[in-house]
Design brief:
heterodimer, A: about 100 residues, mainly alpha, Arc Repressor Mutant, subunit A, 3-stranded antiparallel β-sheet, elongated, B: about 325 residues, Four Helix Bundle (Hemerythrin (Met), subunit A), 7 helices, about 0% strand, rod-shaped
Chain lengths: ~100, ~325
């Protein structure tokens, strides 16, 4: 699992019940805008993330609909364990080869 | 000399062998022919495959080169906009000046408004278009009965026009947020509303000045105030028209660049997902809009550069979906 994917998942895991749109997720994960879409598409393919259009009338609200993303409730446990595994493997790799695994020098 | 007799059955066997050999030769010929045909077909297949590979490579090369070109153009546009930051500052400066002039104009009109009641009642401000052609005699009734003559437009009504024009496209507003067409029409109606009555008032005042009928010093002050307001209104409209003209020139370029980048980001995606991501990108660009143009442009550029990895992710999803459908026909 790549580091940006982990960041996106952690941002969604902070409040699993909360629905967030792309820009919000990018801001919460500390990623540049526009980089979250491929990650979210892959997570949707894996079935970990769900998405839906905001249920508003754009003419009444005066703004376009947002596409909201949230963690699939059945996948939260899987996501947590995957993040734990990713963290453990990164730590193990860092112990083996200091300087790798995104570690500091 | 005794001749050995040929055993019985040899002739039959020999002829059978010859027949078999002939048959075998024919088969061999046919086999060779089939082999030649097969080789030719293999060559054809290889040729077609080579063509397909070449076409695919060409397509890929074209796709990559187009993407490179698009990206380079997008980066160039971004640099252009960064360089043109000075023109945006110029717009701001002009809006500041327009604000100051508008405030002075309001003060001038206020002054005229204070002075007008104290002066002659003839000093009402009536637009040329509303002036009556002929005043009927009160003793001679006309037929059909005419509606009562409309009251001339005094200064308070004029003052009521000005705020509506300001709210339509105020100097404090962001010119990029307003619809240039609406704002232009608002300023033109403002100009029509303010210039015509001031012209009429100035004309009447000048006429009275020529006839030396103005004697009170307040009348002179009013003449000065109205002339000043007239000049100020002209200055204000001039500043605003120049500023809106510049804003109108800058705004479409910027909007066109953002929409162009977003459109290309969507065009690079698989056909089935284009509508969804077009709406999603539009929504995000709208969210970024009020913050700054730079962020909107950077976001659009990043959407374009990331659209290849998004395309890959979406194609993978489609492939997995197709596999799942094959395995589970339900």
């Amino acid at each position: 699992m790549t580091l940006p994917t982990q960041l996106v998942l952690r941002a969604l895991l902070e409040d699993p019940a909360r629905k967030m749109y792309g820009l919000e997720i990018g801001a919460a994960a500390g990623l540049q805008s526009g980089t979250t879409h491929p990650i979210l598409a892959r997570l949707e393919t894996a079935g970990w993330v769900r998405s839906a259009w905001e249920e508003i009338d754009p003419r009444v609200e005066g703004r376009p609909r947002r596409r909201y993303y949230w963690l699939d409730p059945d996948s939260i446990a899987v996501v947590r364990s995957a993040l734990t595994r990713a963290e453990a493997s990164a730590i193990a790799l860092y112990r083996l080869r200091p300087g790798l695994a995104g570690g500091s020098s | 000399m005794t001749g050995r007799s040929v055993p019985e059955g040899v002739h039959e066997a020999s002829s059978a062998l010859e027949r078999d050999l002939d048959f075998a030769m024919v088969r061999v010929d046919k086999l060779n022919l089939a082999r030649r045909i097969a080789r030719a077909r293999l060559r054809d297949i290889a040729w077609h495959r080579g063509i397909a590979v070449a076409v695919a490579r060409d397509l890929e090369r074209e796709f990559v080169s187009r993407l490179d070109g698009t990206r380079a153009a997008a980066v160039g546009l971004l640099y252009t906009f960064q360089r043109s930051g000075g023109s945006i500052a110029e717009l701001d400066r002009r809006w500041d000046r327009a604000t100051r002039v508008a405030q002075q104009l309001c003060r001038d009109l206020d002054r005229a408004l204070r002075l007008a009641p104290a002066c002659d009642s003839d000093l009402v401000l009536e637009p040329r278009s509303r002036r009556r052609k002929s005043v009927p005699s009160p003793t001679a009734p006309s037929w059909p009965p005419q509606p009562p003559p409309r009251a001339a437009e005094p200064l308070p009504e004029l003052m009521a026009v000005a705020p509506s024009a300001f709210t339509g496209f105020g100097p404090g507003d962001d010119p990029s947020a307003a619809d240039p067409t609406e704002s232009d029409s608002a300023w033109h109606s403002f100009w029509d509303a303010i210039s015509a009555p001031l012209d009429v008032a100035s004309e009447r005042l000048h006429r009275r000045l020529r006839q030396r009928t103005i004697k009170q010093p307040r009348d002179h002050e009013l003449v000065g105030a109205l002339l000043q307001a007239r000049i100020r209104a002209g200055e204000l409209v001039g500043v605003v028209v120049r500023t809106t003209g510049q804003a109108n020139r800058a705004n479409p370029d910027y909007m066109r660049a953002v929409s162009w980048l977003a459109a290309w980001s969507v065009r690079l995606l698989p056909h089935t997902d284009r509508v969804r991501y077009r709406d999603e990108f539009e929504s995000e660009l709208y969210e970024l809009g009020p913050q700054s143009r730079g962020r909107q442009l950077r976001h659009a550029l990043r959407l374009l550069t990331r659209s290849i990895s998004l395309r890959r992710a979406l194609l993978q999803r489609q492939r997995l979906g197709a596999i799942a459908n094959t395995r589970d026909p339900v």
